[in-house]
Amino acid sequence: MNTAWEEAIKHNDAQVVLGLLGKGADMNALDRYGQTAIMLAAHAGHRELVEILIAHRANLNTTARFGLSALMLAVVAGHAEVAHLLAKAGADLTLRGTGAPGFAGKTACDLAAERGMLELSAELLPKP
Questions:
Q1: Are 70 and 38 spatial neighbours (Cβ–Cβ below 8 Å)?
Q2: Residue 15 and residue 4: Cα distance in Å, rounded?
Q3: Angle formed at CA 117 by CA 114 and CA 120, multiple of 5 degrees
Q4: How confident is the model at residue 115 (pLDDT cuts 50, 70, 90)?
């Protein structure tokens, strides 16, 4: 991922994000930590950017270090509204964190429950 994505998301700049998408920039490219544009936006709680990236078909289920997806990053950062949006858009509720204490083997539902986000946790319960 180039720094233009990182800067646009850091500054919550929808116009720059739309410009990058219009120029064909790869929103699913990975930054130095293995995160995509939607992962950065979700972790920062930038709902509008997440909506834009979903509308442009960003991969919702890429996982970064420790196996965390955009949905899981939104939960960890306490952004329930963004997590709800990602779940509604089809984020995989069965993904589990890997390799790091506090994340290994846990789903977004587990992470939400641990953070006292019980309503969100119930929504994120994987459906059989």
A1: yes
A2: 12
A3: 120
A4: very high
Whole-angstrom distance, CA of residue 57 vs CA of residue 94: 20
H-run or E-run covering 47: helix 47-55
Q: Is the pLDDT of residue 128 over 80?
A: no
Instruction: In the chain, count H helices and then E strands.
Output: 8, 0
The partner residues of 97 in beta bridges, in order of sequence, read 104
How do the domains of the chain map onto residue ranges? 1-122
pTM above 0.90, yes or no: yes
As a whole number of angstroms, the distance between CA 121 and CA 56 comes to: 27
Residues 6+ apart with CB under 8 A from 90: 60
Q: What is the pLDDT of residues 19-35, one digit of tens each?
A: 999 999 999 999 988 99
pLDDT at 41: 98
To the question of domain 1-122 being in CATH 1.25.40.20, the answer is yes
